[in-house]
Each structure stands twice: as structure tokens, then as C-alpha cells.
Amino acid sequence: MEQNAYVTFHGITKTFPGVRALDDVSFSIAAGEVHALVGENGAGKSTLINIIAGNYHPDGGYIEIKGEKVRMRNYAEALVKGISVVYQERSLVPNLSVAENIFADRQPRKFLFIDKKKMYEETERLCGEIQLDVKPSTPVGELIPAKQQMVEIAKALSNESELLILDEPTATITEKETEVLFRVIREFKARGISVIYISHRLQEIFGIADRVTVLKDGKYVGTRSIKDVQIGDVIKMMVGRDLYTEKYRSTYEEETVLEVRNLTSKKFHDVSFSLKRGEVLCFAGLAGAGRTEVARVIIGADPLESGEIFIRGKHTRIGNPEQAIENGIGYLPEDRKEHGLYLEMAVAKNIVSGNLNHVAKNQIINEKKVIEVSEKYKERLRIMCPSVQTVARQLSGGNQQKLVFAKWLLVDPDILIVDEPTRGVDVGTKSEIYRIIRELASRGTSIIVISSDFPEVLTLSDRIIVMYNGTITGELTRHEATEESIMHFASGIQ
């Protein structure tokens, strides 16, 4: 192992029921290094993070920090050792203020009382470092997801860490915020602080990391210097194969299945568009543009102030998501854990949850059929889990995303709205999700994709609608669109 290593993993092994999450993993992270950790969903990245953070304990192997063998019993001990983690899934308390979240359990005190003045001053300083424009007293629940993620980063910065672990830190933040984050990471590096950077966005890794370590199926594949490899080399290490990219071909028909006219709510106004049968219509834009809010109004999750919705030419009023399903509209939400899955239920029950009639007779659930149907979709979508009886919470993020798709494939809606379908998933899973979306479109399903990933928009779309600040600022055909033209409209430039 390296002489200047800050942290070294020696033969780390961890087993859960039916799964060996980590199998004899050994590698080092140098002091003052930005070290990328990559692998497909389920490769063992999150398990390794949880071990160094003290949330899990290894079944075999050990960790050294600065040459000293350590065993963190909990996250509090990891913090004492100078280790901070910004998790992919936010750990903020919505009802508490920004300042209270950043200094949770360690508020500055004056005598026996919390020194709120000092806490607010420190919060303003930390937020200023990452150019986050929020008031310390603002409840976190009132912030958009991108700003909540930046609060998580400010919270980690407040710990004065020697090792900062960032798990998919840019998944919900804008390009501008990503640039700020990268500046902060470089400042950390200049101060000798080590950073473990986990991301499925390989372009980012090549822009910020010094080295990259690849895990696959819980095993160590290798560590490479960024300057010595190409993105294609890393992908081969991750998935063990070249990714197949299907050539685009149009499958949509001229029949209009959905038309909205002059939709207006508190978050957007005067939105009009149509959707063809078998079309993939992408809504592009930056965080806070109003795209998700439009979808939520269409499915009846949020109130509509004015405007009209037509399904196959018929004026339709949708008051709740159940009525949306009755009208043939399905919705995969951006936050799969909060709104897309029953995390404490088995994979099988999640898959059939949207269409119980498919596995019931005379209102009695046929458990044998539940297993048969769920096994079919597990294989079709390549959901990696020990069995369909596995609890959904135990699946990796990418496999949870595929589980949400499986649920809606069984429902088989005429119109499917998918919000950030590949956020937080690896390149292999992303390729599979693209295949599923194009396959559905070829079978006549009309699809609305909401995405902040412009290359994804260009890959999937037949047509692109761009929003900014609650309004539609541009519409592009697939052949007209470029990343530059999408960004032009997404920035509100007329």
C-alpha cells in the first residue's frame, strides 16, 4: 500500500442475507487526493461508504487511517476521526431551519443556551463558501432539491473533515452549482484533505478526480490514474463489456393522445403542448424550471388553477393520481424512495402494487401468480436481488429505479410520464432504461421524459420542450436540438 495513504482498506468483506456485498476489497486513498469510486448499482460502493462511516461493520478485513488500524462503531466516531459523508439520499429534517440542520447535535453554545447568533453567522459563512443563497432561518423543507443538496454539502464542510465522502453530489444540483462544488473540492485538495467522489457521471470524474477505483459485484477490479485511462476503459472495467447503443428510429404516429392548453398553477403559467402516440417528448430545463410541477398537475397530484387537458380529443378533468391511472396515465416520480416505492415491502409486492387486478380473482390475491409475474419482470428488467421476496429497501438505487419501471410496465398505461429516469444510476442501468423507454414507445406508449441531463434528452427524444422559470421558452425537433440550443432556452434567453 502507498506510503502517503490517508485511508487504506485491507480485505474488506461484508455479507448480507443472500448477498456478498463486498468480497476482499483492498486499495488506498492518498492524502490530499480526489479519488473517484465507481461501479454499477450493486457493486458495493454504498456498503464501503457505510463501513468507513461506522454505519456497518465488516465481516472481514480492516481499515487503516494514517497507518493506524481503526474500527468505527458509529458515525459519531467517524466524525471524530475526521470523516464526513454527504449521502446520495438526503438526511435533512424538513421542519428544521438550514442552520439547525447544518449544526444538528453540535450547536454552538453560550453558557447552557444555544448561541443562535453565532450559529446563524457560521451558517452564512459556510453557505457563502458554496455560493448558496438561503437564509439560515429558512426551513429546509421549503427549499428545492438542488438547494437541499447544497445544504448537505455545507453541513459536511462544517465538520472540518480530513476525509470528505461525496455520494452522487451533483445528482440534483445545477451546472452552475456543480462548478461551485468543484471549486470547493479543489480548495479541499489544496489543503491536503482527501475526497472520495462517487458518481455515475463519468465526465465529471474525468474533470475532478486524480485516480479512479472500480468495483464490480462487490469485488475490487482496479485503480487507475485518470490521466492514463479513457472513459471507455472505465466503462469496460465497470460492466465487463461495450455498451450497446441502439440507433435512433422514429416510431411515433400522428394521432394526438394528450393535449394541454394554457395550463397555469402557482409554479408555472400558460403551458401548452401536445403528445403523439408512440412519441418520446422530453421536457428539458434546469432545476426549478417548473417541469415536475406541470407533470404533477396533469396527474392530479397538485391543483390546476386554469387551463384544459384533453385525452384523445376528449376534455378531461383529473382530480387525483387514481383518476390519472383510470385515464391511462402513469407517473414515475423523481424521488423514487419517497413517492415511487413501498420500501418495506417485497420486490414482488411492489411490482404488482399498481395493478392488483392482474393477480387477483374475485378480489382475492393469487400469491402464486404474484410470484410468477414478479419473476417475469425481474428477469425482463434485470433487477438484481436475491429473490422477489427481498425487501425493496435492500436494493441498490439503480435496481430500485428499475423496480418502479416494472410496476408501471405491469399497469401498461397509454401515457407514461417519467421524471429524471436515470438519476443516480450507473451507465449499464442507464443503457437498459433507455432500451425500455424506446421499446415502450415502439409498442405505442406515449412517453414524457423530464430530464436535466441534456445528453440524455438528445439520446431519447423525438421532440424537446424547454422550460425556464415556469414557462415554455422553446420547442425543438430532434434534428434541430444540440446541447447549446437546449441551454440557450433553459437559461431563459429569448
Any overview of this molecule?
This protein is α/β, with parallel strands linked by helices and 494 residues long. The chain folds into 2 domains: 5-239, P-loop containing nucleotide triphosphate hydrolases (Rossmann fold, 3-Layer(aba) Sandwich); 256-490, P-loop containing nucleotide triphosphate hydrolases (Rossmann fold). Helices cover 33% and strands 26% of the residues. It is globular and about 70 Å long. The protein starts with a strand and ends with a helix.
Global Rg: 23 Å
For the record, the count of structural domains works out to: 2
Q: Describe the strand arrangement of the main beta sheet, using strand numbers.
A: 6-9-10-3-11-12
CATH class of the largest domain: Alpha Beta
How many helical stretches? 17
CATH architecture of the largest domain: 3-Layer(aba) Sandwich
Sheet of most strands: 6 strands, mixed
CATH topology of the largest domain: Rossmann fold
CATH superfamily of the largest domain: P-loop containing nucleotide triphosphate hydrolases
The count of β-strands is 24
- Cα-to-Cα separation, first versus last residue: 56 Å
What do the pLDDT scores average to?
88
Structural class: alpha/beta
Hey, roughly how much beta strand do the residues contain?
Answer: 25-35%
Shape estimate: globular
Spans with pLDDT under 50 lasting ≥5 residues? none
Helix content: 25-40%
